[in-house]
Amino acid sequence: MTGQLAPLDPSLALQLDDIHKSFDHTQVLQGIDLAVAPHEVICLIGASGSGKSTLLRCINLLEEVDQGRIGFFGEDITDGTVDVNLVRRQIGIVFQSFNLFPHMTVLQNLTLAPIRVLHKPRPQAEAEADALLRQLGLLDKRREYPDRLSGGQQQRAAIARALAMQPRLMLLDEVTSALDPELVAEVLNVIRALAQAGMTMVIATHEMSFARDIASRVCFLDGGVILEQGTPEQIFRQPSQERTQRFLQSIIDAGRL
Amino acid sequence: MLSDPDGLETGPLVVAGGPPPTSLGGGRSRAQGGRRAVIISTVSTIVILGVLLGGFFFAPGSAVVRQTFFNLKDARTAFFGDPKIGIFSEGSALLLNIAMFLSAEVLILILAMVIAMVRQLRGPVSFPFRMLAIAYTDFFRGVPLILVIYAIGFGVPALYLAGISYASVFVYGEAALVLSYSAYVSEVYRAGIESVHPSQVAAARSLGLSQWQSMRSVVIPQAVRRVIPPLLNDFISLQKDTALVSVLGVIEVNRAAGIVSSTDFNYTGYTVAALLFLLLTVPLARFTDFLIARDRRRRQAGIARG
Description:
The structure holds 2 protein chains of 2 kinds.
Chain A: E1 14-23, E2 26-36, E3 41-45, H1 52-59, E4 67-72, E5 75-76, H2 84-88, E6 91-94, H3 106-116, H4 122-135, H5 151-163, E7 169-173, H6 181-196, E8 201-204, H7 208-214, E9 217-222, E10 225-230, H8 232-237, H9 242-253
Parallel strand pairs in A: 3-8, 3-9, 6-7, 7-8
Antiparallel strand pairs in A: 1-2, 1-4, 4-5, 9-10
Chain B: H1 5-17, H2 30-57, H3 62-69, H4 72-80, H5 90-120, H6 127-142, H7 145-158, H8 169-195, H9 198-206, H10 211-241, H11 253-264, H12 268-305
Helix pairs in contact in B: 1-2, 4-12, 5-6, 5-8, 5-11, 6-8, 7-8, 8-10, 9-10, 10-12, 11-12
């Protein structure tokens, strides 16, 4: 099977070929194709249940794909022989529900993986973590436990935790969906800064105006496939597919665009 | 004791839940409601204690029971011992119980954790280990502790195995306690491990931590924190079950009490033994309650904040 496929393109940060994934008898992903160049910011939009989160979890190998392959800078990470831990440390993921470790301080959350996985000396890991926390405006919270932080602060800490591994690709899974409206902006600003710094990102989001601002490309997921993709201009101004139009209309009707 | 602190809390609530204030004469303050609750709880405590003590003191056999179970002179002899008539001191025998449960607790915490982790192993290679761990917990939770004590205390020496068949009865008793309680405690651990949300593991794995590293740094620390109260509850039970080891001839409190009673035909020694066990278990019980209450306060604070 692999022999028949064209070799993966090492100049692409991420290359998805015909990804299929089902849970029990529900087909969630039914053939996703996507190529992401370094420094691109891809926004995945689509209704709840359209497979955005599943796709991100597959890229991070938190879910095993049923069919298809995933290339990461030219390396097939789905062929079963790769060291998943080695792959995951290069791909950061941020979850909707933060998933900070509640028994650790913010600083410990950030340094755990650099120390345990990358075997960095603690002083170095802490210095790097402090630098990240300063950038994200959390330096004064370094000794706090997550439950003492606001949702926006927790999500920024979770982003910092992923960045502490110096990933080559960041996956953001509806990172503002669990936040109170007034806390959304502080998190989006962090992501915007990341995009400007050239971080390659795949972002599942319901924040359409944010996607329009930040995305180099917008992909509309529907029925387990990418039904339509293009620049934000194309997707939000003149979507060619009727389903995309209907989805965007429903967002506009809800006053979210 | 009589001025039940809870009474102060529930007093105003009772008033609030009762008839409207106007029918109570109106303007009843919280302090008045609280005072009323204190009075009620005091009276009710006196009445109930009175009934119990009355039943005890006016029973036809009261004098005999007081003489055989609550004799102050015999209590003193039982506690301090009397070497001249071959009576062991229950006070110093207690040290043996303490030594037994303290060392057993350390071993139980370790063995139980190993068993709980083996049960969490995934993959076909670990199947036999998983099955062994399940069989272990099923067996030692299912067999009464006293039978385990007999089996180890009398069975192992009978094997005449170099190294393990020539230990002291203390060691056999302790081994039985560890084997039996580790089965319970491993289930407590397991419940804790399974209560940690899978998203925590996903977060750890997504950072590149291996399954073992995620377990060690993320799951186990959270799990252990959650199970401390039920764990201490098992340890309270362990503390008094050290008495069962007396069947092997270890002269711990229970055995010492038996020697007292069969020497001077008075059961006061057993009463002293019971008091000594209470002395051990009640502080730990209160400490456990304290931890549970603190945990609940923290969680409620967390909910309020979230």
